[in-house]
Amino acid sequence: MKLSNELKRKIRQVIYITIFWWFVAFFFVIHDHLFKESLKGSIFKDYNFWTNLITNLFAVATAGVTGGSIIVFFLKDRFKRRPLWFGIVVNTITFILLISVVTIFASLFYNALVTDLPFSHPEVRSRTIEFYTGPGYLMVLVNWTIISSLTLVVLQINDKYGQGIFLDLLKGKYHKPKEETRIFMFLDMQGSTSIAERIGNKKYFQLLNEFFEDCTKAIVETKGEIYQYVGDEIVISWKIKNGTKDANCLKCFFEIKNNIQQLSDKYLKRFGVVPEFKAGLHYGQITVGEVGTIKKDIIFSGDVLNTTSRMRDLCNAFEVKLLVSEDMLRLLDLKDGFQTKEIGEIQLKGKNVPIRLFNVFIGVKTAVAEKGTVKT
Fold first, then answer.
1. Is 115 in contact with 73 (CB distance < 8 Å)?
2. Domain residues of the chain, as ranges?
3. What angle do CA 232, 237, 238 make, to 5 degrees?
4. Which of 170, 189, 299, 332 could form a disulfide with 232 if both were Cys (CB 3.0 to 4.6 A apart)?
5. Strand partners of residue 282
6. Where are the alpha helices (DSSP H) in 162-302?
7. What is the pLDDT of residues 254-297, one digit of tens each?
8. What is the pLDDT of residues 21-48, one digit of tens each?
């Protein structure tokens, strides 16, 4: 069974969490070793470095897979519509319960190894209860609750700025502007003003929020990144490699279209309308960097953004849903199913050189036979 990109992304996150927690556990083991004399009696009745190391790696592997899965598949998104305090309380309680359970088994494991006795032996159970009722358990609980909470914060930062951005921020990658070449799609809902007037602002906001959520699955599946939301518009970005592979940047538009069509009954029942949308697709060089003082953000700047936005605005004039630049099409190796229709060379506002635009749609025949060759 083929795994979706969304599931693969979440599995990778669980693996990263486990690896990160392993490093933290190793640090704690080294700390324990350096201060083993002062920790005897409070944490260790008998101390053995290798037993402590094996126990921690075993416990963290279990906690990483279990706890990481709970964070990624449940906690991170489960309470995003609830008050912040509610999410903090639930997360903290969940972490405490998980840490408590793992600590019991880890303590049993450690004491069984150092005493060379079975888990069920009264001496092993006695040592475990002694640890669990002493300061050692409290120290473990506090340390790993903090680590788990920080892990959740890192995931939330990645959701805010995009996957992998947290490490880039730590390294200061965007403190100075960087130049990149990226693909952009500007996609917005059609007739949003009239829809808002008909159903009211509050219900329109709910419609917009659900529309964005239903678009997200297709964006993730095609390895896109949500750059920003602007009113009723989503700005989607791809690194060149991700966007051109299997024509992901084009597939994204049609997968969103299919998702919305499949959910049409839901939209009609709740809002009395099925969202329609249009988009422009183009690529070019941009400058990316961190801006702001009180509120910081990572922004893209470049002519490609203005060009793509104006392409999207022309969709209504040409009565099409998707406009793609010729330069963009030349990067793609289109397979059977896509067709293109040339719109012509268009002089965009503020541009000195006209740009050749194409409408791309799903058809029976192949419109682009070879990479770099656009047929009309």
1. no
2. 5-161, 174-362
3. 150
4. 189
5. 184
6. 165-171, 192-199, 201-221, 240-244, 248-262, 264-271
7. 999 999 999 999 999 999 999 999 999 999 999 988 887 777 77
8. 889 889 888 888 887 766 665 566 677 7
**SS3 at position 248:** helix
Alpha-carbon Rg for the chain in angstroms: 27
Q: Which amino acid is at 335?
A: K
pLDDT in tens, 156-214: 766 665 565 666 666 666 678 889 999 999 999 998 999 999 999 999 999 999 999 99
Separation of CA 192 from chain center: 27
CATH number attached to the domain at 174-362: 3.30.70.1230
Whether 237 contacts 300, CB under 8 Å: yes
Could you give the 3-state DSSP secondary structure of residue 162?
Answer: coil
Interatomic CA distance for residues 257 and 269, integer angstroms: 18
Integer Cα distance of 66 and 47 in angstroms: 27
